[in-house]
Amino acid sequence: MTAQVFLQQLATIVSPADILHDAESLANYGRDWTRLHTPAPLAVCFPRSTEQVSNVLRLASEHGVAVVPSGGRTGLAGGAVAADHELVLSLEKMNHIGAVCTSSRTIHVEAGAITDAVQAACEPLGLQWPVDFASSGSSHIGGNLATNAGGIRVIKYGMARRWVLGVKAVLMDGTILDMTTPLEKNNTGYDLTQLLIGSEGTLAVITEATLKLAPIPAATQVALFSVGSMESASDLLAFANTTAGARLMACEVMSRACLDVMQKHSGAFFPLEGNADYAVLIEVDGRDDTDAENCLTQIAERAFENETVLHAVIAQSAKDKAALWRWREGIGEALAKDGLLHKNDIAVPVMDIPAFTEALLTLAEKHRLTPFVFGHLGDGNLHVNTMKDAGASLDEFQKAMKAWNAELFVLLHDFRGSISAEHGIGLLKRDALKHTRCAAEIALFRQIKAAFDPRGLLNPGKVIVS
Ligand SMILES: Cc1cc2nc3c(=O)[nH]c(=O)nc-3n(C[C@H](O)[C@H](O)[C@H](O)COP(=O)(O)OP(=O)(O)OC[C@H]3O[C@@H](n4cnc5c(N)ncnc54)[C@H](O)[C@@H]3O)c2cc1C
């Protein structure tokens, strides 16, 4: 049967107005933030209920049409790319946000709800969905769960999978799995909700979720420290862990190269003396502002006594806090303004960060690269960006980055690290999966994929080749 017949039948399941195939929509909905693949979907479809999703997937299965689940398309791994005549299934019109249940501290939402909109619904009750990152104004809860999103406060709250009780999802053959449950405890065999979280739309389409919520801290306080080495940064983290304990909200590191580019593009005044190799931002929570500030002061005192830090500044106002955070949060944007970037989002065991960084710098020197290193020191997740030389052609840069990745991934394997800490595998890292997952794991991945989607029609080619 032709694509035209499929599209005609599709228009009997969803309203014809909920199917787009103009060039602009195909280009827009056929890609995510990676911008590395040319979008070429067959059409974009906007179901409005789980039943419609089920009927659309069943029809697509009957016609052998591949389907790409699509959220806010802020993904950084090419997971939502549709470049081969797939049907893009956008959840954007399934964005209902239910009432907060304060006794169970939960909220029930449809998968297309924007992350920030869910936060806005919880905040008046002093609650939050504690998964916090820069793209939350556009990303969907469904995309956050499909990628098991992390963010800046993972050290305190963990990743998205910790904040879900259950999901409703649809298999490629149209079967609906309703696992939304208000139960906090449910030890009844395999946890399929957790299997779907982080599966990047390759096993099922998530249509609804019951999310767990956490109280918003009464007060937070932020300090910025300069340190002479990654080893000192790591020592500072150890002081923070033993002084602040569970109150540590974030511990972020930025290399001098990042701070210089940030300074150049922001024009802001860097609040610490000298040109130390790294800056570390620490955020803690407290019973009130004084309590949080005392906690940071104790960390700073211990760090100065042991000559771990060179300089420190503690925010004195909400404006100060935002300005200190800007040195961390503005790096991605500043680097993007400076040149074409090649990005790696990697993880190593927290205690190995100093040794890994040293090995990374040696490797970068061998490749004649300046690595821009920044990220979540507290949970071992570093962003390692490299930039195209103004004099190099795109082709030369791509070849150089292939060679760089090849050796970086081997180094990561040696350190028991991960080629993707948060962003997922998608299309971008698929061929490098073997550096982090062993052959037996990848073989099981294939069997799991075959059990959920035997014909390989759901988000084909992402994560693994079936
Ligand atoms: C500026 C910026 C900052 C970022 N910071 C972070 C960060 O700190 N931490 C972090 O983890 N990520 C970060 N990201 C990456 C990205 O925002 C997250 O991965 C986010 O969770 C993706 O959500 P989305 O709705 O945009 O998903 P999409 O990009 O639309 O999709 C991502 C994947 O999920 C699948 N998918 C989407 N919806 C569904 C669904 N309903 N059912 C099944 N599969 C689905 C897609 O097929 C795709 O494989 C950042 C991105 C940007 C642009």
**Bound ligands:** flavin-adenine dinucleotide
Flag low-confidence runs.
Answer: none
**How would a crystallographer describe the biggest sheet?**
7 strands, antiparallel
Provide the helix percentage: 25-40%
**So what's the overall shape?**
globular
What number is the mean pLDDT?
96
**Helical run tally:** 15
How many domains would you count in the coordinates? 4
Highest-level CATH class of the largest domain: Alpha Beta
Order of the strands making up the biggest sheet: 15-12-14-13-17-18-16
Strand percent estimate:
15-25%
Distance between the termini: 24 Å
CATH topology title of the largest domain: Uridine Diphospho-n-acetylenolpyruvylglucosamine Reductase, domain 3
- Rg to the nearest angstrom? 23 Å
Number of strands: 18
- Class derived from helix and strand content: alpha+beta
Name of the CATH architecture of the largest domain: 2-Layer Sandwich
Description:
The structure is a single chain. Helices cover 35% and strands 20% of the residues. The protein has a seven-stranded antiparallel sheet with strand order 15-12-14-13-17-18-16, with helices on both faces. The protein has four domains: 3-90, Uridine Diphospho-n-acetylenolpyruvylglucosamine Reductase, domain 2 (2-Layer Sandwich), CATH 3.30.43; 97-215, Uridine Diphospho-n-acetylenolpyruvylglucosamine Reductase, domain 3; 219-328, Alpha-Beta Plaits; 339-435, 2-Layer Sandwich (Alpha-Beta Plaits), CATH 3.30.70. Strand 17 (372-376) and strand 18 form a beta hairpin. The protein starts with a helix and ends in a 14-residue tail after the last helix. With 466 residues, it is of the alpha+beta class.
